Amino acid sequence: MGLLEKRRAGKLMLKILGAVMVIAAAALAGWIRSREYARRPNQIRRTILALRRLETEIMYGFTPLPDALLRIGEQSGEPIQFILSEAAKWMNSPHHRTAQESLQKAVQSGWKYTAMKNAEKDVLHQLSFTLGTSDRKDQLGHIATAVRQLESEEEIAREEQNRYEKMYKSLGVLCGAFIVILFY
Amino acid sequence: MSPSWLTVFPDNIRSLLSALPPSVFGGLEEIRIREGRPLEINAGGRFCYLTSEGGMTLDAAKAFMPSKQECNRLLDLITNHSLYTMEEELRKGFITIEGGHRIGLAGRTVLGGGKVEHLRDISGYNVRLAREIKGLANTLLPQILDFKHKSVLHTLILSPPQQGKTTLIRDLARQISSGTWRHPEARWPGMKVGIIDERSEIAGSKRGVPSFDVGPRTDVMDGCPKAEGMMMMIRSMSPDVLIVDEIGRSEDVDALAEALHAGVRVIATAHGSNVDDLSSRPAMSRLLECSFFQMYAVLKRTDQGMAFRLWDDKRRRVQLPDGPAREAKGREVNA
């Protein structure tokens, strides 16, 4: 009798452990997904700030583009720093690529570390064609356009964050619970 | 090792240039790039076009023609990807790159209030390679020494363009500043030299620091109008010798007179092929009348190097110790 009781209790324990693990995994997946929604507007904001700093460097600092990108990168934090310093690296010796190629290469290689989407990538891609190739007034115009576009993307991203962040979190837990119930 | 100026060219033009025979490459003076037209090089006073195989030709139809893309790349590289930092340079029409080389630009100008405000659609580039020839002034310097005052004479150096005036006064500045007088009886130390470098040619300054060796006691006023620069130098830097390139306007002459009264020695250059030429130019004839300069040197480039003839303040020919014209040769320093 004692043995049977013990076996039953052991089986129950295993089942509970399994259920907890399934729920935890699902909750984690939901949490990761929801975090992407939180990171995107944050990174867009930081990109906008970086562009605004670039505006100042160009307008008042007369700083050459590679130096400006390096300096702004240091203040921006990852993953923006990676993209900016990568762009500066390609511009400088010994690569001597054009500003356009350098920025495009950097965006290409660094984008996977960001939570940003294609819309933001396009904005930077567009900017790469004009960055460094005209006078200050013109540069400011192009940067301002990019900033405006990013701001509208940021708004969309914030909306999505409000809508989906919590949803994915609870959805994860619920999915886990659903699977557990199914298997019982 | 390839020289630093080669890195400003796009890959294909760079490989064309570095494939040139060493004798031509070493003597390169100008590389002219015009969008959609033949790539031209000037070396040793002669010109030719480059073919896309790297050969040299005089037939423009066979020549390699740089595309718009290559020109844009060149512009991006010479401006350090930052055209917006070069607004002042664009207004003047040239950019000085590392090593003191100057790149002249031609394009469409944007006017503001009747003055050139900006240069856009740049399609013509003239890369003028600066050469530093140490010792070029070795033969001229002993002729212009003023033993009485332990200084140098007021000297005007005359020559047509592209004969090496700038290279010569750069070396003069270096030697006067370091006190290598090239004369056994000249035993005074180096003097304070002030260079007014209106077009960043003499010292090739980059961010205010000379690219060339202009001597230990030399100050450079970079990108400054000559007349104003001379006054600024006299007032602020107390030079013993002033060096200016290409004087010619009447305000330059006024400033020179001022320098004379301030007790500063002046070495200047001007365009012209002989001393009599000067009298036909209104501003310069005033210089002759008040016999401001104590020595006139007329340069001529020869196959062996540089030759010069001298006239004194009364416009009499000065006979040089060994023969009418002496070759000045120097050791070229690779920038």
Automatic annotation (TrEMBL), chain A:
Annotated transmembrane regions: 12-32
Keywords, comma-separated and alphabetical: Coiled coil, Membrane, Transmembrane, Transmembrane helix
Coiled-coil ranges (or none): 143-170
Pfam families (UniProt xref): Spore_III_AB
Entries under InterPro entries matching the protein: Spore_III_AB
NCBIfam families: spore_III_AB (TIGR02833)
Stated name of the protein: Stage III sporulation protein AB
Species: Fontibacillus panacisegetis
Organism lineage string: Bacteria, Bacillati, Bacillota, Bacilli, Bacillales
Automatic annotation (TrEMBL), chain B:
SUPFAM superfamilies: P-loop containing nucleoside triphosphate hydrolases
UniProt keywords, alphabetically: ATP-binding, Nucleotide-binding
Domain of life: Bacteria
InterPro entries registered for this protein in UniProt: AAA+_ATPase, P-loop_NTPase, Spore_III_AA, Spore_III_AA_AAA+_ATPase
Gene3D superfamilies the record matches: P-loop containing nucleotide triphosphate hydrolases (3.40.50.300)
Keyword tRNA processing: no
GO MF annotation list: ATP binding
Residue stretches making up the AAA+ ATPase domain: 151-301
Pfam family, one: Spore_III_AA
PANTHER family cross-referenced by the UniProt entry: KINASE-RELATED, P-LOOP CONTAINING NUCLEOSIDE TRIPHOSPHATE HYDROLASES SUPERFAMILY PROTEIN
Name this protein carries in UniProt: Stage III sporulation protein AA
